[in-house]
Amino acid sequence: MKNFLSKQRQAGFYSIRFKSSAGRLTTAQLLTIHELAEKFGAGFIHLTSRQEVAIPFVRQETLTEIEKICAANDLEISPLGRIMKIVTACQGKAICPSGIIDSPAIAREIERRQGGRELPNKITCSVTGCPNNCMKVNYNDIGIKGAVEPHFVADNCIYCGGCAKICPVGAIEVNKQTWTINRNKCINCGRCVKICKKAALRGAIGYKIYLAGEILPQFIDSEENVYKIIDATLNYFAEHANPRERLSKMFERLGSQNLTQILLSDKILPK
Ligand code: SF4
Ligand code: SF4
Ligand code: SF4
Fold first, then answer.
1. Which segments of the chain does DSSP mark as H helices, in order?
2. Spacing, Cα 195 to ligand 1 middle (Å)
3. Which of 148, 152, 153, 159 to mutate to test ligand 2, by most ligand atoms within 8 A of the CB atom?
4. Which of 64, 125, 196, 268 has the fewest beta carbons under 10 Å from its own?
5. Measured from the CB, is residue 193 less than 6 Å from ligand 2?
6. pLDDT mean over 223-251
7. pLDDT at position 1
8. For domain 88-265, which CATH number applies: 3.60.20.10, 3.30.413.10, 3.90.150.10, 3.40.50.1000?
9. Tens digits of per-residue pLDDT, 89-114?
């Protein structure tokens, strides 16, 4: 049975947490949370690092009543334990001017496929819309970041050097008649594509993935492959991790090369 109540320091009191949908709660849901905090809590809420709303000072015997109110008001209680945790997201391209990808939509799809899955230990996952990395996805077990891969269209280039000047990591070099990029340096921010007024840089939209804080070198150009990488990582973790072992510890013990090999041979990761 899923556990929804986390014990407090104060005897007899528990904290209960409510899910947001990739960081979003409707005003109606907030009103329900307000009602619950007034009736069953201590009149305040706490925001968790996983974009949940917690109500502390709840008594165990009120759980059934809280569950009924939640079911009637489209509010979901967040389960505790060794599971795939709620997937967090920034507002992404639908709202943020810097956004490259629709972070909440991707987070919801990951949640739909893997949310709440029981695992050897918890897995945290977050989606951030661009290299600004507001969600600090590298501090999650699995992180997804919106990315742009610039492609050069030589016929349109006037070799003005604007792209080289704006590149924050000095990945582009422009001389009189040559344009070169160091893809190992490029952080896929897309600034060069935005600044070029001659359509000499075409930006492919894609994703960079972090596993246990380490970025995979490949640029992932398909959303479906993002989901496949996450599915394969969780399957591998479920099969190979020791009980209560975190993803990073499993990689420390076994290395990540076997998982990478699976992803490469299934053609989920480009070579
Ligand atoms: S990560 Fe990028 S898209 Fe997401 S909120 Fe920050 S700046 Fe906006
Ligand atoms: S900004 Fe555009 S036109 Fe200028 S050097 Fe870069 S690619 Fe060429
Ligand atoms: S995408 Fe960003 S980091 Fe990469 S070359 Fe362009 S400006 Fe530089």
1. 27-40, 63-72, 103-114, 162-166, 191-195, 223-240, 247-254, 257-265
2. 19
3. 159
4. 64
5. no
6. 98
7. 54
8. 3.30.413.10
9. 999 999 999 999 999 999 999 999 99
Q: Looking at this protein, which amino acid is placed at residue 222?
A: S
pTM: 0.93
5-72 has CATH 3.90.480.10 classification: yes
The C-alpha angle with vertex 207 and arms to 217 and 95, in degrees rounded to 5, equals 145
Token couple for 125: 């996952």
For residue 94, the ligand closest to its alpha carbon is 1
What are the DSSP E strand ranges found in the chain?
5-7, 14-18, 46-47, 53-58, 88-89, 125-128, 142-152, 172-174, 179-181, 201-211, 214-215
How much is the average pLDDT of 57-77?
96
Which amino acid, 194? K
How far apart are alpha carbons 259 and 256 in whole angstroms? 6
- What would the two tokens of residue 81 be? 């334990």
CB 207 within 8 A of CB 220: yes
Write the single-letter amino acid at 41. Answer: G
The tokens for 70 are: 């939640």
Residue 233 structure tokens = 């990582």
CB 82 within 8 A of CB 118: yes
Which one, of 243, 215, 242, lies nearest residue 229 by Cα?
215
